[in-house]
Design a protein that fits this description.
117 residues; alpha+beta; Nuclear Transport Factor 2, Chain: A; 4-stranded antiparallel sheet; two-stranded antiparallel ribbon; 3 helices; Ni/Co efflux regulator RcnB
């Protein structure tokens, strides 16, 4: 029994560094989704009508890389002064996603800066 306990403790010491050395998935770390469900109930006579609306918001983080599919769906902001944003440097571009403004690198698609309105 004592040998078994010592072997388990020694195994846990050997397995701990290997488990912590696993690389984190950057996409899952950088992007957090917030889910909000709105439920409206209407009564019409004896029938009950339930409408559900699910809103999923994406939270962006600096360093997150946008996929080419995401980059095709977002709109570029050319009049950045209108929204009181500073001028992008060479190779960067302001884009608008809902009410969030993201400064992305054109070549890599990585988020350089964020602005929320």
């Amino acid at each position: 029994m004592k040998r078994l306990l010592i072997a388990l403790v020694a195994g846990s010491f050997l397995a701990a560094p290997m488990a912590s050395a696993q690389p984190a998935k950057p996409f899952e770390v950088a992007q957090v989704k917030e889910r909000h469900v709105e439920k409206n109930v209407y009564r019409h006579g004896k029938t009950k009508i339930v409408e559900k609306r699910v809103v999923v918001k994406k939270r962006w983080a600096r360093g997150h890389r946008l996929s080419p599919a995401e980059r095709r769906r977002i709109a570029a902001v050319n009049d950045y002064r209108r929204y009181r944003l500073y001028a992008p440097q060479r190779g960067q571009q302001w884009v608008r996603v809902d009410n969030d403004f993201l400064l992305i690198s054109v070549a890599t698609g990585a988020i350089v800066s964020l602005a929320t309105r």
